[in-house]
Amino acid sequence: MDATSDKSSSTRRRIRSIEVGFRVIRALLAAQRPSPLRDIAAAAGMPPSKAHLYLASLVREGMAWQDPETGHYGLGPFALRLGLSALRQLSIVDEARSYLRQLSDRTGCAAYLSILGETGPAIVSKSDGIRHGALSVQLGYVLPLTSSATGQVFLAYLPPQRRTELLDREYAAAARDDDSYVPRDKLEAVLGKIQKRGYATTSGQLNANFVAAAAPVFDYTGEVVATLTVLGPDRYLSANRLKDAIEDLLEIAAGLSRAIGAPDPTGRAD
After folding, report:
1. Measured between alpha carbons, how far is 256 from 261 in angstroms, rounded to an integer?
2. CA distance 100 to 113
């Protein structure tokens, strides 16, 4: 009886520990950027000494990450993999596979699907093309919002308040001397044009000698839920080929939107 009671008590303690650990994880998620121990502890409702013990374990398991310079904590690589694994279970990821293959077959270039997460647009599915060149698209890679065609599409179609929140965060951490830096006023002027034409393009912004074109994917509510992007060498995707690739991109993105129930798959302004 005593052994059974002890075992039951131990099991309850382990469960409580998991629940407390998730308070720390939720605090990391809510912060949306690396934060000091005191802020995470306050958000999790526990003393800093207790939060530190949980964070040390989470760092060891890859669920959290600590900046070696500031000592601040953020979500780690395993958290990203966990989130992406959940995203892959969504119907849109399964539905998109045939559309990605169709896009890469038509254009000869790499095609990928991205979903907006807490840290930016993450690539969750892809189809390599015969002309994708030396650049390999990596699943799980998080693209910048402001300097990628994928990110710009999300920004163009998100509700204004959400767009402002994301831009405030992005520019607060942006380095002006970075080659990919896009001034905010210039970016915001571009976003209206993206919405009117239904797609965004970048050339050499993130990867030298590569061109990207991205288009939105809408769900049954008419909200943007993903982007389809085609990526290829600029020597190949030039002039008429780029124009043809964009036409294919728009057609296939609209088809995927229809497949998941979008009322207006083009999403274009009148």
Report:
1. 9
2. 8
Close Cβ partners of 180 (under 8 Å, ≥ 6 residues apart): 144, 147, 205, 206
| CB contact set of 46 (below 8 Å; sequence gap of 6+) | 20, 23, 24
Contact present, 37 and 71 (Cβ < 8 Å):
yes
Task: Give CA separation, 29 vs 43, 44, 101, 119, 140, in Å.
Answer: 10, 11, 34, 10, 18
**Token pair listed for 200:** 């965004």
CB 120 within 8 A of CB 144: yes
Calpha distance 163→76 (Å, rounded): 24
Instruction: State the residue for tokens 């964009």.
Output: 246
**pLDDT, position 142:** 87
Q: How many residues does the chain have?
A: 270
Q: What is each CA distance from 97 to 19, 55, 85, 103, in whole angstroms? A: 36, 37, 15, 10
The radius of gyration of the chain from alpha carbons, rounded to an integer in Å, stands at 22
pLDDT at 177 over 80: no
138 close to 186: Cβ distance less than 8 angstroms:
no
Q: What is the pLDDT of residues 26-40, one digit of tens each?
A: 999 888 789 999 999
Name the burial class of residue 270, with classes exposed (0-12), middle (13-18) and buried (19+) by CB atoms within 10 angstroms of its CB: exposed
DSSP letter, residue 122 = E
Residues with Cβ within 8 Å of 113's Cβ and at least 6 positions away in sequence, in order, are 92, 93, 96, 100, 123, 124, 125, 126, 217, 226, 227, 228, 229
